């Protein structure tokens, strides 16, 4: 069955089998996770040559390194000899990766450099070391965020992110000097849910906050309705399936961390950020907002938690989360973000703890044959599309809407059905045209 | 507490940045170097831990909160898989954590649970918290004891939802009103990837 028959992005009806069916999940690994640009690291995690970390692209384990040429390399973490995992550490520093099984050893670029009794291979007709390196991915980066893809035919990262970059600058370029991930590795936790539920949620579902997070926001915002969300002064923006819903409150998300000194600091930066980004994007910096970079990389302005929803089967997802701050931020404010993002959006976070059970049962219910042959309702469309030429992408006014989620699933279906990238429409980037004209 | 009046958590007990770092460093150095506590004191400490576990199992968070000292430092660092040759400290108070709390932060968490608006705790989770391997040592401060213990924390809710967490705790306990207060607590969970979706719980 074609994916486009499972997703009615005009009416907002989504066939529930896409959250449960094993064959659909396997096709996602091929059509989406083996083709799209996937987030793998922040450059600050790999500062010195020899720095490495391990992560996943789909279900493929990969090693990310900083090479001697300062370039970033991404390659499979599986020995081409008998297939064992090559690196078992989450992060570290070194010159080579040696497989535990037979001792094959690979350099920072993933090339096979040596193995025990190398003479046996030298005596093997036709054997060439260069044929048996760790398979490399293409690597690209945007303002500190490093992405990779195993698809040689994929469009450039710039084309894939397109005009979403203009909005990304609201969190990646608000302050001079770039950004960094706070130290300490990824916060990792396992949910028994399909990866698309958290991904679609972050792309455009502020609606759930009004009910799901009543309890979590009560201590810091006050009883009932502390989360102020309305469709004036708020937007949903979608580019190539990436989605960002936001309002113009500047620090609405940050307020739920309940740290007055931190809010005071953020307010003190408002004028400078406005000068740097203009009022529209400055107001997005810490506002009531959430975003997903298609397919599975998401973040929350204000808390500045960035996370991947790593697929581990149709009904299992691992969240890997980090906190991103401007490098120039004072150390004590960084520490307040470290603790504030943890207390709200981590496995112990007063807001994140509200979410997991919803996504698990949205997934698990589809074990029922009749249940999974129903549709889910992504129909909410109270406001129309906004045709304001100063705002790139597909913009809807009002953040309370399912607009971004419908466009997330439209892109999902295009990728699932499209055999070639030429079958998958990407929005032309007006940013590059503007830059070229300068 | 008036239900309609929001507590001002900004006025609740907390620590300065430096005091918190100092507390973390103290926890990191606890290794049973002091004289073992007398048997009678060890018995009192074990009795305290059994009572504490019962309060948490029965969701009596207000009574549990009263066991916490105003200068509480409560820390569950993230665990990482690192090669043995890696020179970086395994536990670093400046790193991301699962809990890194002062008494005011615990009050916020209890406020969430007390709001009666946390749908994912209704119907409630059932808890069993088992404390074992309790050791206690005197410290350089009279009336403060260093303890080490292990735990099993089992949670079950709904039909099939369960989580079992094992771990180690290091505490500084302060003698207080014929009982104890928890001054510092280090919670070491062995899981580098938390194999459950949340930590809607206290340790």
Top keywords for this entry?
heterodimer; A: 438 residues; alpha+beta; Rieske Iron-sulfur Protein; Naphthalene 1,2-dioxygenase Alpha Subunit, Chain A, domain 1; 2 domains; 10-stranded antiparallel sheet; 4-stranded antiparallel sheet; B: 203 residues; Nuclear Transport Factor 2, Chain: A; 4 helices; 7 strands; 24% helix
Description:
The complex is a heterodimer of chains A (438) and B (203). Chain A is α+β, with helices and mostly antiparallel strands. Chain A folds into two domains: 38-140, Rieske Iron-sulfur Protein, CATH 2.102.10.10; 162-434, Naphthalene 1,2-dioxygenase Alpha Subunit, Chain A, domain 1. Chain A has helices at 22-33, 119-122, 157-161, 164-172, 196-204, 209-212, 214-221, 252-255, 260-268, 270-277, 279-282, 331-344, 352-364, 369-372, 403-417, 430-437, and strands at residues 7-8, 13-15, 38-42, 51-57, 60-66, 72-76, 91-93, 96-98, 105-107, 112-114, 138-142, 145-149, 179-181, 187-191, 234-239, 242-247, 289-293, 297-300, 305-311, 317-326, 375-377, 385-386, 394-397. In chain A, the strands form five sheets. In chain A, strands 13, 14, 15, 16, 17, 18, 19, 20, 22 and 23 form a ten-stranded antiparallel beta sheet that branches. Chain A has a four-stranded antiparallel beta sheet with strand order 6-5-4-7, with no helix packed on it. Chain A has a three-stranded antiparallel beta sheet with strand order 1-2-21, covered by helices on one side. In chain A, a hairpin with a 5-residue loop joins strand 19 (305-311) and strand 20. Chain A starts with 6 loop residues before the first strand and ends with a helix. Chain B has a single domain (15-80, 90-188), classed as Nuclear Transport Factor 2, Chain: A (Roll). Chain B has helices at 17-29, 39-57, 61-65, 103-114, and strands at residues 68-77, 97-101, 126-138, 144-157, 161-176, 179-188, 193-194. In chain B, strand 5 (161-176) and strand 6 (179-188) form a beta hairpin. The longest helix of chain B has 19 residues, at 39-57. The model of chain B has no long low-confidence stretch (mean pLDDT 96). At the A-B interface, strand 7, strand 14, helix 7, strand 20 and helix 12 of A face strand 2, helix 4 and strand 7 of B. Strand 14 of chain A pairs parallel with strand 7 (193-194) of chain B, so a sheet runs across the interface.
């Amino acid at each position: 069955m074609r994916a486009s028959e499972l997703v009615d992005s005009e009416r907002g009806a989504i066939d529930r089998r896409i959250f449960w069916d094993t064959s659909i999940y396997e096709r996602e690994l091929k059509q989406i996770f083996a083709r799209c640009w996937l987030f793998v690291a922040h450059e600050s995690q790999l500062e010195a040559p020899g720095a490495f970390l391990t992560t996943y692209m789909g279900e493929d384990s990969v090693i990310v390194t900083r090479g001697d040429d300062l370039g970033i390399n991404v390659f499979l973490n599986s020995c081409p000899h008998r297939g064992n995992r090559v690196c078992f550490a989450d992060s570290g520093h070194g010159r080579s990766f040696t497989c535990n099984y037979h001792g094959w050893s690979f350099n920072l670029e993933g090339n096979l450099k040596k193995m025990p009794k190398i003479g046996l291979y030298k005596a093997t007709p036709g054997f060439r070391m260069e044929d048996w390196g760790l398979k490399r991915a293409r690597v690209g980066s945007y303002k500190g965020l490093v992405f990779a893809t195993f698809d040689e035919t994929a469009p450039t990262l710039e084309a894939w992110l397109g005009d979403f970059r203009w909005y990304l600058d609201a969190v990646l370029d608000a302050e001079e000097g770039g950004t960094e991930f706070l130290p300490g590795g990824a916060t990792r936790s396992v949910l028994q849910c399909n990866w698309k539920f958290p991904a679609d949620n972050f792309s455009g579902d502020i609606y759930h906050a009004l009910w799901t997070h009543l309890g979590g926001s009560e201590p810091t915002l006050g009883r009932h309705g502390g989360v102020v969300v309305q469709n004036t002064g708020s937007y949903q923006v979608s580019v190539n399936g990436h989605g960002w819903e936001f309002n113009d409150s500047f620090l609405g998300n940050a307020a739920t961390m309940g740290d007055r000194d931190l809010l005071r600091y953020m307010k003190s930066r408002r004028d400078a950020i406005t000068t740097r980004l203009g009022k529209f994007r400055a107001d997005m910096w810490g506002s009531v907002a959430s975003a997903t970079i298609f397919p599975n990389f998401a973040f929350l302005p204000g808390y500045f938690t960035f996370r991947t929803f790593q697929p581990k089967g149709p009904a299992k997802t691992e969240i890997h989360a980090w906190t991103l701050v401007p490098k120039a931020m004072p150390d004590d404010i960084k520490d307040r973000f470290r603790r504030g993002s943890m207390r709200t959006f981590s496995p112990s976070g007063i807001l994140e703890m509200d979410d997991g059970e919803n996504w698990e049962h949205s997934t698990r219910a589809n074990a029922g044959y009749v249940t999974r042959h129903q549709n889910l309702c992504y129909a909410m469309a109270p406001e129309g599309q906004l045709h304001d030429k100063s705002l790139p992408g597909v913009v809807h006014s009002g953040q309370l809407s399912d607009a971004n989620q419908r466009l997330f699933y439209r892109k999902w279906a295009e990728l699932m059905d499209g055999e070639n990238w030429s079958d998958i429409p990407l929005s032309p980037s007006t940013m590059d045209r503007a830059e070229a004209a300068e | 507490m008036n239900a309609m009046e929001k507590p001002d958590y900004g006025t609740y007990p907390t620590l300065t940045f430096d005091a918190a770092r100092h507390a973390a460093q103290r926890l990191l150095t606890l290794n049973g170097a002091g004289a073992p506590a007398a048997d009678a004191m060890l018995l009192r400490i074990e009795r305290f831990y059994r009572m504490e576990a019962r309060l948490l199992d029965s969701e009596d968070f207000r009574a549990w909160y009263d066991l916490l000292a105003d200068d509480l430092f409560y820390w569950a660092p993230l665990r990482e898989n690192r090669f043995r040759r890696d020179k970086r400290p395994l536990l670093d108070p400046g790193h991301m954590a699962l809990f890194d709390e002062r008494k005011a932060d615990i009050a916020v968490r209890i406020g969430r649970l007390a709001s009666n608006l946390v749908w994912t705790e209704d119907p409630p989770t059932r808890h069993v918290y088992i404390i074992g391997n309790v050791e206690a040592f005197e410290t350089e401060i009279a009336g403060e004891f260093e303890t080490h213990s292990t735990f099993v924390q089992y949670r079950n809710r709904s039909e099939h939802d369960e989580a079992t967490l094992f771990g180690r705790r290091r505490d500084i306990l302060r003698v207080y009103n014929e009982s104890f207060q928890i001054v510092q607590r280090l919670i070491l969970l062995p899981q580098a990837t938390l194999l459950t979706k949340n930590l809607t719980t206290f340790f």
